[in-house]
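Quick look at the format.
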Amino acid sequence: MAFISINGYDFPSPKRGVKPTVSTIVDAGRNANGAVVGQRVGRDQYKIDSLEWPWLPAETWETMLSILSDFFVYVTFYDMVGGGKKTLKMYPGDRTAEPYWVDDDGRPLFYRNCKVNVIDCGE
């Protein structure tokens, strides 16, 4: 099973350094005494940051980007809070890569330092 699947497509294993983040959303801050007066709003939300692949064939990266071209995607990943796989509606952040080894027509054959993060929609 893949570390991360998006819209049912198993992405290649990313390099070390992936940063899953769990955020608790609150509706207010602190009072004049510094005590928390807010309450939790909804459920915890997730961000999977620093997904990076050091080297990918152009076809693989292009397939991954085509899957990420929809604004909303369904991401399946290992939930460090609940243990086990979790699927959430998310959206992709910036997607970057460096073209490497291009053919005579200027088409990249490989990409390096391919990066993306995915952010929970809260639904």
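Next, a different chain entirely:
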Amino acid sequence: MIRTFLIPFLAIAGMIFAMAMVVRSSQPKPPSLPVVMPPTSPFASRVAGSGIIEANSENIAIGTPVGETVEKVAVKVGDDVQAGDVLFVLDTRDQESQLAVRKAELEAARQSLKRLESMPRSEEIPPAVARVEAARATMEDLQNQVAIMERVQDPRARSEEEMSRRRFAVLVAKGRLDEAEAALALLKAGAWKPEIEVAKAQVRAAEANVNQIQTEIDRRVIRAPIAGRVLQVKIRPGEFASAGMLATPLILMGAVEPLHVRVDVDENDAWRVRAGAKAEGYLRGNRDIKAALTFVRFEPYVVPKKSLTGDSSERVDTRVLQVLFSFDPKDLPVFVGQQMDVYIQSAPEGESTSKSNGPTSPAMESTK
């Protein structure tokens, strides 16, 4: 009896259960609501794109021309700085010691030049004049002796050898007088002009050496290139600051009043965007935070799209036209680096027929 009724009953029950599951699974699922409602375009004809907020000067990655240990960091994140303000200082002890040596050499060169330019010293003139007078007196004495002997008429009272010796002595005395007078004239004339020029050249060389070391010291004091705000500080005292291009800049800064939005527009829609077009930006994650954007310029070179989402399915082969807009940061509670959904008013009616009703995302708009 069990075989007669139980087995057919179980078979019929299984068929009914299978049919119920098939009917239930074939029913359409209700669409799931998005976590955040996308913004709605304010323009009937528009082009949508994703934008990233940046400084109006573009984000400036501050580096260092030389690799050295950081001695002091003078700013912190969020500080407003003026052009020329110190951002951080590298260790300059080696250059300071070299500078002291160069300054000493410069002072020695200047004193040497000063000594040449001040010649002759007033104290050196009287001794030189005295030597001239002494040489003149000696010569006149010898001349007088020769004159006396020449007046002697008796040849036996004088010898020719003695007369010759005294005449030669007069010549020697005259030569010494000429030498003393020449030395006095040279002393009064002061330093030789070429010697002064050489001394001046040595001073200039010493000054150049001092300026070279001072420049090396100045290069280790990193200053703000423009007035702006410090956005990131990735260096600390005692750390080694590497020179050259770094993946993470030592300090990131830029001018933030006003802010710029760099919008990526698909190259297929680039022809629809006109200079001066109106645009409206919505902060990513909250469509109620929005601001009117003012056209600034096009970046005239179309570039490959950068992946901002990290999604492996993103079309990395897409090329985009970058359009820059500006807005007052006081209008939105935003930060540099945040993303915005941007709608740009497209070409006039007749050139574009792209319209949409209801809320859509910029990603959906740009792929229409």
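The helical segments are 2-25, 93-117, 125-150, 160-189, 193-219, 362-366.

See the schema section for token definitions.
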